[in-house]
């Protein structure tokens, strides 16, 4: 699986200026607004005085840049889609939005976005259309359903699906888009609400390389790094593997918080200890303090971590992926059971860190 990641802090200046040049090619007003972002991985100890983003090699193709007129469609304005669309608008892009619940378009319209009344209309009016939908079912429906984006696609257009879906769903949407003579890129993201707001997402892309190159300046507005992983399905698979690890990490962290409390330790101190050691993770520092207070402000809804749809997703889909290649994943399977319990307690709309409640309940059952 070819990955074309480059991470070279010492070419920071070059990359930043390249990004600015590319962004201004896409969106004329970007160069005035676009400023290098602070390096986010270790905010307390900045390694570099200037920001750097991780860009893939051969990120651009000047000729394809010239052909792009810069009108961008955005379908799906939920927790992730809204701030992403907002960042594109703020960067000066000409954005047309659509969302099933129309009221979620209003804040973006007031920032300068235009509105179209169906995914088809958005795709017909845009050169590139992004989609950030909840799950495989909605991703298929918005792309391939009645008045779906596919009907508005045609040669010279591109469809970028950022939703987290399974490999089969991504391939299906790709086929429909291709049948219209358009290009397709899957580009699920690693990162949650805050990285979406801060333009610090990580894109896991696969599909048409020329579309990848064309939209790279846009991905660089929305994210801090991007990987091109080859054929359609590889981006979806990478995202599922990442979320499988994340789901298990969160379940393990939850156990630690509860065990520390039971043995008379202060779980807030545990969070601090973890944050300073080799197992430190931004996720623990971000969510740990709220978890200790039994609060789960929703960034990544639990329902998305343990979706129960026609194909299912995230942990469940990752388990399916593992099974398809006979890879044993007992830790993820155990974590998955906990998310199922949490979901059965009505915690679907809470943050996925609410999985700790499933463990609390289990402890009471056995006490
Ligand atoms: N939240 C997070 O931290 C992260 C989420 N993701 C992934 O990003 C995607 C979006 O997540 P997020 O923004 O959190 O989810 P939200 O639930 O906040 O938003 C989901 C979006 O999908 C739309 N939608 C749902 N069902 C349908 C349908 N049947 N037809 C049309 N539109 C529909 C919703 O429309 P409406 O407003 O009308 O309900 C909304 O725009 C998911 O695939 C998720 O797994 C990836 C990384 C992080
Ligand atoms: O899908 C969620 C994430 O944080 O990545």
Automatic annotation (TrEMBL):
Keywords: NAD, NADP, Oxidoreductase, Stress response
Swiss-Prot/TrEMBL catalytic activity: 4-hydroxybutanoate + NADP(+) = succinate semialdehyde + NADPH + H(+); glycolate + NADP(+) = glyoxylate + NADPH + H(+)
Residue ranges of domain 6-phosphogluconate dehydrogenase NADP-binding in the record: 71-230
A single GO molecular function term of this UniProt record: NADP binding
Keyword NAD: yes
Superkingdom as given in the UniProt entry: Eukaryota
InterPro entries: 3-OH-isobutyrate_DH-rel_CS, 6-PGluconate_DH-like_C_sf, 6PGD_dom2, 6PGDH_NADP-bd, HIBADH-like_NADP-bd, HIBADH-related_NP60_sf, NAD(P)-bd_dom_sf
Cellular component, GO annotation: chloroplast
Gene3D superfamilies per UniProt: N-(1-d-carboxylethyl)-l-norvaline Dehydrogenase, domain 2, NAD(P)-binding Rossmann-like Domain
Record carries keyword Disulfide bond: no
Domain 3-hydroxyisobutyrate dehydrogenase-like NAD-binding: 233-358
Protein role: Catalyzes the NADPH-dependent reduction of glyoxylate to glycolate as well as succinic semialdehyde (SSA) to gamma-hydroxybutyrate in vitro. May function in redox homeostasis and play a role in oxidative stress tolerance by detoxifying glyoxylate and SSA generated in glycolate metabolism and GABA metabolism, respectively.
Family according to the record: Belongs to the HIBADH-related family. NP60 subfamily.
Protein name per its UniProtKB record: 6-phosphogluconate dehydrogenase NADP-binding domain-containing protein
Species the sequence originates in: Gossypium raimondii (Peruvian cotton)
